[in-house]
Amino acid sequence: MSITDWSQGRFPGPLSAELAEIIGARRALDMVMTEEKVDAAECVRIGLADEVVPPRDLAKVANEAAALTGAGEAALAAARGAWATRLGTRHH
Questions:
Q1: CA 7 to CA 52: how far, in whole Å?
Q2: Cα distances (Å, whole numbers) of residue 60 to 7, 46, 56, 64, 67
Q3: Domain match, 47 and 69 both
Q4: What is the pTM of this model?
Q5: Which of 19, 22, 46, 71 has its CB 3.0 to 4.6 Å from that of 66, i.e. a possible disulfide?
Q6: What total of structural domains would you count in the chain?
Q7: Residues 9, 36 within the same domain
Q8: Residue 13 · residue 41 · CB < 8 Å
């Protein structure tokens, strides 16, 4: 279920519960109820993201982060697959 489900009359419960753990219940409820859009800088400020990376640098930064954690390409592929499954998308 995605945030867009709210527009179709379905409350995004799992999403809002995880969001509340990160940014607090009051802020999460406000975001869910108002469908507030949050830009990248605000995501960093409220803790939804660690940093903002230009698209051209994303692969490089992701590989650097993987190297720091000792994750290999197989671990990264597994993580991408898990997120794609969770989000209902495909990653090639």
A1: 28
A2: 36, 25, 8, 6, 11
A3: no
A4: 0.51
A5: 71
A6: 2
A7: yes
A8: no
